Structure formats: structure tokens, C-alpha cells
Amino acid sequence: MRQSLQRIKRLSLSVMLLGVLSPLATPQQPTETLPVEQVRPGMEGYAYTIFSGDQIEKFDLQVLGVMPNFLGPQQPIILVQLKGPKVEHTGVVAGMSGSPVYLDGKLAGALSLKLGIFTKEAIAGVTPIADVLRAPPEISPPSSTTTTQQFALSADTIARNTLPSGSALLPIETPLVFSGFRSDTLQQFATQLQSYGLVATQGGADSSSKDDAHAHLTPGDMAGMVLVRGDMSINSACTVTAVEGDRVFLCGHPFMNLGDIQIPMARSEVVTTLSSSLASTKIVNMGGTIGTITSDHLTAVTGKLGAPPAMIPMDLTFVNGSREKKLHIELINHAKLTPLLVAMTTFNGVTQNALYGEGNTLHLTGEIQLKGHVPVKLENTFAPTDSMTPDAMPIALVMQSVFGRLFTNNYEVPDVDHISLRVESVPGRASYTIESAWLEKGEAAPGENLKVRVLLRPYRGDARVEETTIHIPDQIVRGTTLRVLVSDAEWMNRASRGFSFAGNAGGLSGPDGLDQLIALINRERHNDRLYVGIFVPAPTMVWDDKELPNVPLSQISVVDGRPTPGTVQVLRESLASESSVALGGPVAGLISLNLQIR
């Protein structure tokens, strides 16, 4: 028995020594914290991060001082200088934010800021641990009555416009890892990405593992936020500062300062650390999801290990003749980010495949399915231009605009169930300009059908005449002069609905709810059609998503007397009859004709 106990002791000692000597062993970080009030200049300490693979490495640092009220009222930071061959070679690295910092053997904070660019010393700022752990606890997903907010400038943007870049203490950049994207796509959206202080890098995406559901993180590990996954992926990467049960604290500064959120959290692996005098960064492969990012605030990003939140599935089909390419991705459901992510993934999916080529006309169809609402229908045609902007960019901007309108309604957060898009490429540039129009005759009787002929000029082609028939209203008073409008879709929308059909952005009147907004979007005319409309000199009331032609003046007076007329507009004319001609390419132009009723 005694010999057995001795063998167990020797085996335990061997295991302990193996853990100490093995370079891959996980460091046992202290759990006791050090208040910022006890931090003094000259104190020496260390921090943990990953430079390559999944091996957590230790590097030294020295305290230079404490800067009170730096992040805000009663929010100081600790200024430190990093020591050691690696950090002195790389400087402060994008993706290092969140690295746990220890002083006197106690957890003092999270590496979060860097001083300038092209600096000779690796000087960084540390968010005190009390502020990191003070991040809001886990919350429930936002309710359907949450009001969305508009975009705001990031702290990085503000700092770059108020201090010289060489002397500003700025948040360490958060690498935004793009997999399945080419640099062409990133350049098109670089301005919007940079406004949030994000560094776009290309990386890989690992497949999910059965171990993801039981993932365990320690301080110094890498984890990130999943924005897009599937045939294309967009993820971020930060260093873990602390773990309390199933709660994870990382970054030491905001990702985008989005507040309370529901974004999938993923494991990550550092392929290598790229050293650069301008901006060193970690090259990261993102793995499977391991939980949910629940908050994104000034001093930390926090998450919870376990099941990730649901994402929006999106199917994109690109067709060129008899060939087609299908892609499937998933995106987060977030008012600020989803419109941009939809635009980027649509543009990348269309342009970065072998079937795409510049100089072709692109026809977009599809729908957006929302829970509890009718689908949003999409249809538009885009002809190539002579500018340097890629021909597919208008498709991306239309998608961004539609999702922006859906998410900026003031009544409910849209719950997007599925997005399906189809883009067909037709050889050549098919576009038309309205040059002239004339009526079959200058007078007509009530109830008569009247022919309208339109002279169209195709791009670099011979002019052609299109003909359509329009019905004269039966009840029109004889002797009345009507206006016949020959136009593209945009002008006809404006003439019949005023300027409220685009939603309520910018303080303009608009629909009172998501149902009304969807109805307006679905009724918008298509840009590849020629429209002819007859307008009578009687007021039209546009109320939310409804058009009420020929409204009596007495009713208009009642509405105008309301305390808050809100979304009501009164137009001087009413659209009485309309016809259209499909042309297969965008139409532009406007002609107005007068018609006498005999």
C-alpha cells in the first residue's frame, strides 16, 4: 500500500513538472485583482497574448504612469511600456487588445490602447480591471419595440480629427478578418469600415468542431465576434482578459460601442503576427461559434459561453446564360451592421466569381422574408456605366438602402427570416433615354382609350418608338385639361406619392409602421419600365402607405386641423390611369403633355 502511494506521488510530481516544462502548457494566471489606486510608476509586470497558433505567451512590461479621466469622467488608464524581443520588434499589435496585464502578481487590467504610429517604443494603455469587470451583465435579446439609432462616429475617428496621429493614444485596432473576399471588395467599402476604427485583413475560416460546444477559454486566448459566416465570412478577433464562470471579458475597449447586442462568439487561431512599422497585426483563422457576445461597451466586450444566437440566412444565385453560381451565407441581425454587411456580401458574391464580367446589364430579383409580415419584393435592372465604379455597386447600394429603410422604422425591430437574391447577367449595355412623346390626338372623350407613342434612344443605338394605350377616366368632366406624364419609375413615384415613399429618414413624413413601409417598397415601380400616367386636377392625399385620390377639400381641411398631421401629404393632382412598357434596361427621362377632354 505504501509503495502504491509513493508511485502515485511520483506520478503526480511528474505530471506537474511536465506541465511546468511544456511550452504549450496553459499559464496559471492569478485571479486576485489590483485596484488602479495601487498602481505606481516603475512597477514591473507582465501580460499574456498569442503570437502564433494557440500558444499563450508571456511578455514583460513596466508602468509609466496613470492618466486619470482619460476614457471619460472617473475612467483612468494605466500607461505602460512593453518589454521583450517580440513586442519590441512588433510594437503594439492589432488583435492584442484585451491581453490581461498583471502587476505585483495581480490582475490589473486589459491592454487596450496604443500610442501613435511609427513610434520607437512599444507604449500602450491599459484599461483598469475594475472597469473591465464592471461591464453590463448578460441581457435578454432586444424586444420588438426597441427604437433603432443612427450611426455615430467612432472614438478612433474623433481622435484622428482632434490630435496629431503621432501623439494620440488610440484604441488598439480590432482586426476584421475577411474570408472569401478579395481586396477589390474591401476597397469599395474601406471608408465605412475605417470610420469604426476597424482594420480589414484577409484570413481563413476553419470548420466547426464538435468541441466548440464545450469550449473553454483562459486569459490570453483569442476569441472574436462573427458578423458573417458561410461561403463568405467576416469576423473580429480580440484577446481574452478574464473568465468568470461562463462569462468572458475581452478587448479592453469597445468593438464598435454597440451596447447590448446578440452576436455569435467564435474561437480563433493566430496563424502568425505580421510586424509592420505602420500597423502590426495578427493574421487569424476563425473557428466555430462557442457562445454569444452580449455587450459592447467603452471598457470591454463581454460574452457568454454556450449556444450562439440565430443569424439571417441569405442565398445568392448569379446567372450568366446557362451557367449559374450559388452561394449561401448567414449574417447577424443588427440595425447598424446588417445593411452594410448585406451590401458587402452581395457585391462580393456577384463580382468575385468566374461568371461575372464588367460591361453587362444586371437584373436583380428576390425577396426578404420577415417574421409576422409579408415579404419585401425586390426587382431592379442596372446597366453598366463609363465610370470607374464597378457595375455591380448599384446592386449593393440598393440592398443597403432597402435594409436601412427596414431597420430605421420607429415602431419595431424587423426579424428577418431569410434573404433570397438572384442576379442575371445579360450581355451589353441596355439602357434608354426618353427623347420625345406625343398623343394619338390632342382631344379625347371620357372613357376613351388613347394611344401614346414615345421616342426612346437606346445606348449607342438607333432611336425606336414604343407605343402604349392609356384609359381616359369615365367620370372626368368635359372641358377639363389633363396632364399626361411620360417618365421613368422615379419621376412617376414622385408625381403620384410625393417625397414620403422613401421612408421617414431625415425627419420627413413616412409610414407609421413596418407593414406600411413594406407596402410602399413593394408598390415602387421598376426602373426598367417606361411609364405613362394621366393626372387629373384634383388633390390626392398620401396618408402612410395609402394613396387617396380626388379627396374633397372638406376632408383635407379636417386632416390639416389635426394637432400632429404626421405622415399626411396633399398633392395637387391625382393619378387617374397608368400603363407601362417593359424594356429590359433602365429608363431615364420625363415628358409632360396636355390633353383636352371634349
Could you describe the 3D structure shown?
This protein folds into 3 domains: 29-308, no CATH class; 312-426, Ubiquitin-like (UB roll) (Roll); 432-597, no CATH class. The relative contact order is 0.09. It is of the alpha+beta class. It is built from 11 helices and 34 strands. Helix 7 (338-351) runs antiparallel to helix 8. 17% of the residues lie in helices and 42% in strands. Strands 1-2-3-6-5-4 form a 6-stranded antiparallel beta barrel. The chain has a 6-stranded antiparallel β-barrel with strand order 11-13-14-17-16-15. The chain has a 5-stranded mixed sheet with strand order 24-34-27-28-32, covered by helices on one side. The protein is elongated. Mean pLDDT is 81; it is low at 1-26, 138-166 and 500-509.
The overall pLDDT, averaged over residues, is 81
**What's the story with the biggest beta sheet?**
6 strands, antiparallel, barrel
Count of DSSP-assigned helices: 11
Question: Runs with pLDDT <50, length 5+?
Answer: 1-26, 138-166, 500-509
The separation of the N and C termini measures: 120 Å
Strand portion, in percent?
35-45%
Helix content: 10-25%
How many distinct domains? Answer: 3
Radius of gyration: 31 Å
The count of DSSP E runs of length 2 or more, i.e. the number of strands, is: 34
Shape designation:
elongated
Q: Order of strands in the sheet with the most strands?
A: 1-2-3-6-5-4
Main structural class: alpha+beta
Distinctive features:
elongated, six-stranded antiparallel beta barrel, six-stranded antiparallel β-barrel, 11 helices, alpha+beta, disordered N terminus, 42% strand, Ubiquitin-like (UB roll), single chain, 3 domains, 598 residues
